[in-house]
Inverse folding.
């Protein structure tokens, strides 16, 4: 999964099928005792461990999976169906020109350290996010915002652009409201307004949260203690679930063992629609990757269907640009750079590239990357490109690929719903620069009419495909495996978050 680097929010994603299959009388006989032992605790497993617990400091969907809506909160809340509802803001008003939003804040809210939540905290959080030294992944989004305090419980946010998705974005992890005195230590000692507090972090092993007694609303149904474990290997994920060591595994790599889980009445299986985009990222800063013919050659050398089979066990939809089916304004661009090895070799020859061309292929830990990367390397070899695989840990990927841009190619999953904007950022890790794309995206952001916005979104998707800005592979279908008695799970994944206060054990 990616730096939470997220395109436009899916508006009409199909609702995936939720399936619970009953079997195994022997396992059923042991179910009541097991469930009873879990009443006061929950173990959640994730594929990646966060490098920090401050979502305003670094990109990474794995950060928000732990802290968003649990430790930290936002003005608005994104729900499992993609709708937006009040959270720290109890209501808001949008001006006729669609650029100004007046938020009425929820009274009686405090941070974990006892400090009051108010309009000044909102202003501080948003102003901090946009300063030049900010490491917030959405700094440019916040740079468009001006925040004005009216009184303790009223704050006005003025946007330079018309942004129909503003309220959605203010519910994402980069927009959490922080307590000013705590910002220096939020990475390891986070202070928020959420229903849970950090109890402990054993690096490389687990993070434990406990229910906060000072939360503004009583939460008797919320599970008192939640432990996050980190398991990247698919076989280990399956083993932990079957052994009963894990109660919930969002986005688990269990496709090859799916039948086993479906036959086991201890579990419920959810198939999650998401805005995720699996891509082969290309570093435009490195020659000859700055040549569009070389990038198109790489795209033509790759068979998307084979990658979907290897990386997602066949559970994926091919994409041709940085956008997914079901999202507002989506167009099918898969025909722009189809699989054509002979064309790939011709393009390399036209670009003056002599075989073999040696490139690095950096792969983070998730199975989609490691399994898909092997196939990509084999396909590139057939057209004279030697992709030297470098398997790295997630912290190394964030530091060296995302941070220092030390790579040629990298297979990665972008999971955010608003990441088309990253193609306007010349300092972003892939280094794409296009004045034409910047102009198109500005039209997207400033079009009040949905029809106009959809048209410009289509043009932007087409341009990225024609430029082969990256190699666009597939939209994945996530699989969540959970104990049968666990209630309150999201059916889809419009953003990466685990709303712990909504979860409860049946009975």
């Amino acid at each position: 999964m990616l730096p939470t680097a997220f395109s436009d929010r899916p508006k009409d994603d199909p609702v995936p099928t939720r399936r619970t299959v009953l079997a195994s009388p022997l396992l059923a006989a042991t179910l009541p005792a097991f469930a009873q032992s879990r009443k006061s605790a929950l173990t959640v497993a994730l594929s990646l461990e966060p490098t920090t617990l401050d979502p305003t400091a670094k990109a990474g969907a794995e950060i928000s999976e732990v802290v968003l809506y649990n430790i930290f909160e936002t003005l608005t809340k994104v729900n499992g169906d993609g709708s937006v509802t009040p959270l720290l803001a109890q209501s808001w008003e949008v001006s006729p020109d669609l650029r100004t939003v007046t938020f009425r804040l929820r009274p009686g809210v405090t941070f974990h350290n006892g400090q009051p939540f108010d309009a000044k905290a909102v202003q501080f959080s948003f102003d901090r996010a946009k300063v030049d030294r900010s490491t917030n992944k959405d700094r440019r989004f916040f740079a468009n915002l001006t925040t004005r305090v009216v009184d303790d419980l009223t704050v006005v946010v003025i946007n330079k652009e018309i942004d129909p998705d503003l309220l959605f974005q203010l519910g994402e992890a980069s927009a959490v409201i922080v307590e000013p005195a705590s910002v220096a230590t939020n990475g390891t000692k986070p202070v928020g307004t959420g229903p849970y507090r950090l109890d402990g972090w054993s690096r490389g092993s687990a993070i434990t949260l406990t229910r906060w007694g000072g939360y503004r609303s009583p939460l008797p149904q919320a599970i008192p203690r939640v432990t996050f474990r980190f398991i990247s290997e698919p076989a280990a994920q399956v083993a932990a679930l079957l052994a009963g060591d894990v109660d919930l595994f969002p986005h688990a790599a269990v496709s090859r063992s799916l039948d086993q889980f479906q036959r086991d009445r201890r579990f419920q299986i959810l198939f999650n629609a998401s805005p995720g985009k699996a891509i082969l990222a290309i570093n435009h800063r490195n020659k000859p990757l700055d040549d569009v013919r070389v990038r198109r050659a790489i795209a033509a050398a790759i068979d998307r269907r084979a990658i979907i089979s290897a990386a997602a066990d066949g559970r994926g939809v091919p994409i041709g640009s940085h956008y997914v089916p079901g999202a507002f304004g989506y167009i099918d661009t898969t025909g722009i750079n189809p699989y054509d090895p002979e064309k790939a070799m011709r393009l390399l020859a036209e670009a003056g590239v002599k075989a073999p061309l040696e490139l690095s292929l950096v792969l983070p830990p998730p199975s989609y990357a490691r399994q898909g990367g092997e196939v990509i390397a084999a396909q590139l070899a057939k057209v004279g490109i030697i992709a030297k695989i470098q398997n790295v840990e997630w912290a190394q990927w964030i530091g060296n690929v995302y941070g220092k841009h030390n790579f040629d190619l990298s297979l990665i999953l972008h999971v955010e719903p608003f990441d088309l904007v990253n193609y306007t950022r010349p300092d972003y890790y892939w280094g794409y620069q296009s004045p034409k794309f910047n102009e198109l995206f500005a039209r997207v952001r400033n079009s009040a009419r949905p029809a106009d916005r959809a048209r410009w979104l289509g043009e932007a998707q087409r341009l990225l495909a024609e430029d082969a800005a990256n190699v666009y592979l597939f939209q994945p279908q996530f699989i969540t495996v959970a104990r049968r008695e666990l209630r309150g799970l999201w059916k889809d994944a419009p953003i990466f978050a685990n709303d712990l206060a909504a979860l409860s054990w049946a009975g």
Remarks:
- The chain has a mean pLDDT of 90.
- The two ends are 35 Å apart (CA to CA).
- DSSP finds 14 helices and 22 strands in the chain.
